[in-house]
Design goal:
This protein has one domain (16-287): 3-Layer(aba) Sandwich (Rossmann fold). Helix content is 38%, strand content 16%. The protein is built from ten helices and eight strands.
């Protein structure tokens, strides 16, 4: 007598990942998950003003071929409840509750970008036993010189995007040369790949609170990053105006044994401009 399997097919396309929520101590976190089930997932920490819909599907899908990927909205963002906390340390505490109490994981790998990388650093410093591997892209360390200037840079580029009727990310993430403009428009188009069950957009109040939290992070006393002994991959463009590229090099010096990739002729979104090169590198790093 033969029996047929009733196991659900594995979803490896971020555009088709189901939207889910979990409640922890009165706080509701919105998240998506895809890829094969496993004990140690890759949790994605997203950037300033971003929701679940702001991850590049080309990178997520490459990693989800072999790994369980979980993306989530911090509190006060998208479909998650509450309000954006005053500090990134608090955001790291919220993430810890989501991961350990909400989803029940004792060990994770992290993929992070920009502000998400700052929150990820705070999480690893406070709970080093939680994290096995760490990917830090387009980010810098607590107290990093120039991070506190993000407010002026951000509002300046938003103004330019309004004048040109463009997406602000085309200015914030990419150089304004021909290659950067082309990459920026392609990136924005990829973010539209999911057509149903999209996340709620970021609200202005939450955006403002995130900016202030990043500014505080930049003006804070540096963390002791020598406690990060996990395998760490660091990547950025060579002309990051939001989180200066030299801060990626600073992270590399301070995190023993870390790998550093700097992509040429690219900005804050260098890993998105060079996704064809970066996605397989990140996927291999997280799979080994």
């Amino acid at each position: 007598m033969s029996t047929s399997s009733t196991a659900e097919p594995v979803i490896t396309s971020y555009a088709k990942a189901p939207a889910k929520t979990v409640t922890v101590g009165g706080s509701t976190f919105a998240y998506r998950e895809l890829g094969p089930r496993e004990e140690i997932p890759v949790v994605f920490f997203v950037h300033l003003a971003a929701t679940l819909d702001n991850w590049d599907p080309h990178i997520v899908d490459a990693i989800a071929k072999n790994r369980r990927v979980i993306t989530f909205d911090q509190l006060g963002v998208g479909a998650s409840s509450g309000q954006v906390p005053d500090t990134l340390e608090e955001a790291a505490d919220d993430a810890y509750r989501f991961i350990t109490q909400g989803l029940g994981f004792a060990k994770i790998d992290i993929f992070s970008f920009s502000m998400g990388g700052m929150i990820a650093q705070d999480l690893v410093v406070t709970h080093p036993g939680l994290v096995r591997k760490l990917v830090l892209t387009g980010t810098g360390p607590r107290g990093g010189k120039g991070i506190d200037k993000v407010v002026g840079v951000t509002y300046g580029d938003i103004f330019r995007s309004v004048i040109t009727r463009s997406d602000p990310k085309e200015f914030l993430f990419f150089n304004r040369d021909s290659a950067g403009k082309k990459a920026g428009k392609a990136f924005v188009e990829r973010l539209k790949e999911r057509t149903v069950d999209r996340d709620r957009p970021m609200n202005n109040k939450g955006f403002s609170r995130q900016l202030k939290a990043i500014q505080r992070f930049g003006r804070s006393t540096p963390s002791d990053l020598s406690v990060i002994t996990q395998p760490t991959l660091i990547a950025n463009g060579d002309n990051d105006r939001m989180v200066p590229s030299v801060l990626s090099e600073d992270l590399h010096r301070r995190i023993a044994g870390s790998q550093l990739i700097i992509y040429p002729h690219s900005g804050h979104g260098g890993v998105f401009q060079y996704w064809e090169k970066f996605a397989p590198v990140a996927a291999t790093f997280l799979s080994n």
